[in-house]
Amino acid sequence: MAIIGIDLGTTNSACGVWQEGAARLIENRHGDLLTPSVVGLDGGKNIIVGKTAKHRLMTHPDATVAVFKRLMGTKHEVELDDRRFSATELSAFVLKSLKEDAETYLGETVEEAIISVPAYFNDNQRHATKQAGEIAGLKVRRLINEPTAAALAYGLHERKEGIFAVLDMGGGTFDVSVIEYFEGVMEVHASAGDNYLGGEDFLEALVGDVLAKNDLEREQLTKQELQQLFEALEEVKCNINAPWPKRLALTLAGGEIEFEASGEWFKTCVTPLLLRVRNPIEQALRDARIPLADIEEVLLVGGATRMAIFRNAVGKLFSRIPSSHLDPDLAIAMGATVQAGLKAKDQSLDDVVLTDVCPYTLGTEVVDPGGSGRAGYFLPIIERNSVVPASRVETLQTVENNQKQLQVNVYQGEHRLVEKNVFLGAIDVKVPPNKAGEETFDLRFSYDMNGLLEVDVKVNSTGTLINHVIEQSPGTLSAEELERSKERLAALKFHPREQEENRELLSRGEHLYSLYLGNERTMLGELLANFERVLDAQNATEITKARQQLKELLDAMEAGPLQ
Amino acid sequence: MTAPWSVLEIAPTDDKREVKRAYARKLKQTRPDEDSVAFQQLHEAYKFACYLVENDLAVQDDTKDEALSSAGPGVSEASHSEPESGDRDPQSESLQDETPAESTAPPDFQYLLDHMDALLASKNDHYFVENWKAFEQDEHLLTEDFRTSLGDAVFARVIAHWKACEEQRNEPAMLRSAVLHYLDSIFGWSNRYYDLLYGYDYSAEDLEFLNDLKDYVPQQASKKFGVKGGAALHIEEERKTGAALFDGEAESLPFVRGLAFLADVVLLALIVYPLDLLFGLSAQYDWPTVIFTLYVVLAPPCEASIWRATPGKRLLGLQALDKHRQRLSLTHAYLRAAVLWAMVGGVTYIDSLMPIDSLTILFAVGVFGVYLQKSKGRFLNDAASFSLVSFARKPGI
Fold first, then answer.
1. Which residues of chain A are within 8 Å of residue B40 when distances are taken between CB atoms?
2. Strand partners for A176
3. Structure confidence at residue B23 as a pLDDT band (50, 70, 90)
4. Do residue B230 and residue A375 have CB atoms under 8 angstroms apart?
5. pLDDT tens per residue, range A306-321
6. Which of B31, B43, B169 is facing A387, going by the closest CB pair?
7. Which one is the CATH code of A3-198+272-357: 3.40.50.170, 3.30.420.40, 3.30.750.24, 3.30.230.10?
8. Which residues of A are less than 8 Å from B223 in CB distance?
9. How many CB atoms lie within 10 A of CB A241?
10. pLDDT (tens digit, 9 = 90+) per residue, B362-377?
């Protein structure tokens, strides 16, 4: 059975399979390699994923959601109509849609997958991703870090030895990895990142600036208007490399807004964000103990790295021109697919080994080593950028006479005080009463290839061993919750694949309807109503004919204003 | 050939390229997702080799090593050639180790190992550092080769013993840190950490105690990190800073204590009432005196019990504890009661001398209130008897 590789992105997702010694990306039901990570509800029963849902973002803002990867690993729930979904569940929908596409392509059921996650995703977020896979009916064989995946795709593509830096700026996250490729070994030296820096933040900056310049508050706008603004600026952002300037005219909160999106304006808006790019790069190089001069190539992946302004900034930082031989949108999915091939022990990948690192420090809470007796200090056990799988042990002791219990708190982060770090879980351990410091116990942290942490506590005097996989952290689900979630979502149906095209056409039409005015709008309304009637009649030949007509018209209308 | 070269299976080299090639070759046999322990060892060896190469220590280190072993009387030869076939367990290795040693080394070598075996087999003798001093009395220890090979043989035995004890859960038989520290000071194991790790197929876990030995200070508490747990977590701070003895519930505490006392009084009254009917106690004593006396006599046993509370306190979830938040001893509980008795007695005595008017009572209540605020709910009699009453903590918090 095939293992598929999935890039579950903030804005777009993609999947592929390792076939005949090469990574092959799979087209979705619309014939695209990229499936937008957008989920919508239709009539409260049907789930819509991908392009169709993306069109509905403006027409049905209350029943459609995007950019939910940002919420992974949090308790936050998204409301669609009157139903509530966690980010994990929404991601599961996207995964399920990708899984179906892969099944159609391969002609067999797919049950195993490799999913990519931002290198800087923490333990909670990784667990949430893994659970999303489980809800979608996929056994997640490995979570692979996105820059590592990109490097894997690149390294195998070019077969060029040396040290390179991978900068991955996707929709929502920015990751940096320093990677060395030699003799078939892909060794990650260090990873660093910013979980809240991506293409969507650039867009936010533009929207914020436009609103501020026109004395508008976000709350004043209807969801439709806001979406319209977002789409217009999204277009500006995507076409940023085109000749300037571009004029924009929008109707917002009853007022007409007109402005010129110039290069200068764009630059001032995003400069604060570009400055943040520097920190993770510096940290990764410092942790890898590799001087800047040793970096042979800078590799860009992720859609946001297409921006010329980003390329310039990176070029200045590394004093060399960054390269992107692979499609920045697809490199990660290709890498995940390579990893799938590795996992399946494909013959053609026999001579390739990948070693990765743990991008953040893991440790426990201890009493002040200085002797004040205060708790709340962080004791690192696995240092960041240690090679994984890593297993480290630290011997700790009681601090109270007759202390009967130990509370082992597990944290992730870099601060010396635990309150500034991310809490991952706690283990309660009984110890026999004894004088303070007489009872010792061994605390072992094992961090596996997937980036998931296991904690063992061994009380030395009694030999009691407690094993604990950190899974009950905020934002992830317990086994029961997972089951409940699966049942709940089983009630929701995807549209049958054959109807998908019609659905997509309708939502595209509705989207255009909201853009046009006057005669065109009336005509479009009639056409759509007519198409719906034909669909209801369920006459296959009629439907094909009407679909063809509508499609031609929509293509023509869509092409018009964009020229 | 020693660490880390034996793990990488190459001769010591100062060519980084070669180290990388060797690592890549070995890595394809030891994939990280298949054998994580072996991978970690390999990766550590790789990093160490890179470190040696980068600092020009690799080859130089080795020639020194070889010079030493060729100069020595065969003993060190044995200890250095053995480790290459590194997958035997330490026990058999120690046997292998000493065979060539017996032939060439002075007879003391075997004598010392026998002495060690005797110590390890004994019940208590191994506990005292004194008994191990036979090692340092041997003049051969001054020769480096003898010391190294003996150290390796002893080390193998220590590990074997350690593992055996662990398997049998026989903690008392384990070697004390003081003994280990002494042996380490003679043989310098902790300085040869990497040699031991890679040369002898010990896992990092076997060698863990070496790291501990480095900062071991004899006769002193080790400076390890401590982890607090459960209720004990907060006391240390409170005792140190003299801060609040109670949590945020301090405001309701005096009130709840009053209720608890009332409940106890009612309970005692229920006991005393039938006695009164039978024996007519109230004819001789007034009710409050009888009940208060009974309270003072009966409360301590209750507070020293596992309830840590009188029935009334128990009912309202209170506990009487000593200042370390441990259960009161019976004597301590009676001290508590005696202090209470003395205080109430004192007030009654003053009252009998000069009747206390309502204004004074009001004033006293005010003072008491302010005092409670200051002491965060700790009554005067608690403070005077080094005890406290607080809400019982749920276990595990």
1. 387, 389-391
2. A167, A192
3. very high
4. no
5. 888 888 888 888 888 8
6. B43
7. 3.30.420.40
8. 369
9. 11
10. 888 888 888 877 776 6
